[in-house]
Amino acid sequence: MIAPAVVAGVLLAGPLVALLVRAPWDRLGELLAGPVVLPALGLSFGTASASTVVCVVLGVPLAAVLAGSDGWPRLLTRVARAVVATPLVLPPVVGGIALLMLLSRTGLLGQPLFTAFGVTIPFTTAAVVIAQAFAGLPFLVLSVEGALRGVDPRFAVAAATLGASPWATFMHVTLPLAAPGLAAGAVLSFARALGEFGATITFAGSLPGVTETMPVAAYIALTSDPGAAIAIAVVLVVVALVVLLALRERWLTGLRA
Amino acid sequence: MTGTLEARFRVRRGEFVLDAELVLAPGTVLAVVGRNGAGKSTALAALAGVTPLSAGRIVLDGRLLDDAAAGFVPPERRPVGLVLQQPALFPHLTVQDNVAFGLRTAGAPKAEAREQARTALDEHGLGDFVDRRPAQVSGGQAARIALVRALVRRPALLLLDEPLAAIDAELRPALRGTIRGVLDSFPGSAIVVTHDIADAEALADEVVVLDAGRVLQRGPLGVLRAEPTDPLVSRLLAGAVPNAGSGP
Prior knowledge:
Strand order of the largest sheet of chain B: 7-8-9-3-10-11
Largest interface: A-B, 18 and 25 residues
Order of helices and strands of chain B: EEEHEEEEHHHEHEHEEHH
CATH superfamily of chain A: MetI-like
Oligomer: heterodimer
CATH topology of chain A: MetI-like fold
Largest sheet of chain B: 6 strands, mixed
Order of helices and strands of chain A: HHHHHHHHHHHHHH
Number of domains of chain A: 1
């Protein structure tokens, strides 16, 4: 038992240790401020923040609908759940291709959008945000749904008899009581957005300053400027560690819907 | 005086059917007693609007609240206050904001609602707790705060679901006295669901005995004691039927 467990530990921790050992610490500041890393850093944090906002604005209502779905036909609930969980199990590249099928100029929605308004979404910063939101939404929805289901329904009854409409009850009672789950979901979807690569490079490409986020920049820089790639990797590892510390065990309890 | 209630209702919850008539003169306090599963809490849920009727109607002070055929007023638009057995104070709000909640939903500006809430809490001897969270008050205090929270909305009908069941036995007489005082000055009607005849004796003008979703007998406690129409009535009034907590 011990030997495989140690190997598993090395498999998990080894790459990170190697990355931190080999990181060009003496040039890190210079690399981070350089022409490759800095625009990617700004773009990544900007788009990940935007996509987290999108996830919250769209995901909280979806979570609320799912949390109230107990009276639905069973098949419908199963389908709804599967749809929500799809981005979790889908290869990200497939997600990117699917987004192209939907939103490219010849896409299902993209074509009418282009003919009516002249709007093109792929290979723009908006496309980055959409790809990240697609990837991050399941984390937010599952976490918030679990938290909403955990709120004692008597609080909603009390609120209703105190004159609160269903909307007011949700906004002022149920959602605040589910706030830890919302926070956990938001942090997880932000982290997922920050690391999003496959869907982004497929659907949004790698235009520096426009769609080249940190993971994309790291991948591209690896051949031309390995130092920059490693610097980006170090930043992403640090963010991941901060996320883990911030959530501690909460992300597990939040997702246990 | 308000709180003229005419309720004839049928409520279905799975296998269970509550089929009862509750008529109250203004300002009456009615105790509803019965075994677990008699339909006591279901009756309150129907009156509060939490559970719609499957047949019948509820009219309060001449206003139609629920008519299975013609319309349903949702709980937030009924002049009905409900205090649950577990007081369900909102844990994320202070005591003062809990009481102000029902004033805010009625459209009062925040500062005014909070001021009114503070005054009401002061009047009920709860002024020391305004800034506390519900987790920082005792069970008895929480029950009193929940009562004040319902009262500040000036309901015409006040529903109390087992108000003393969650309270330690030695604290019950004092809290019972407090509730009695509140109900004495309350201008509307009240319905108290309880399994404890001592509550009915101390608080109510009349008693209704419910069993299996039907009214067994109704009248002043003395009459029910003297002339029970059913063996279960006398056993319930003697406290001989074990009946902790509230059923559906």
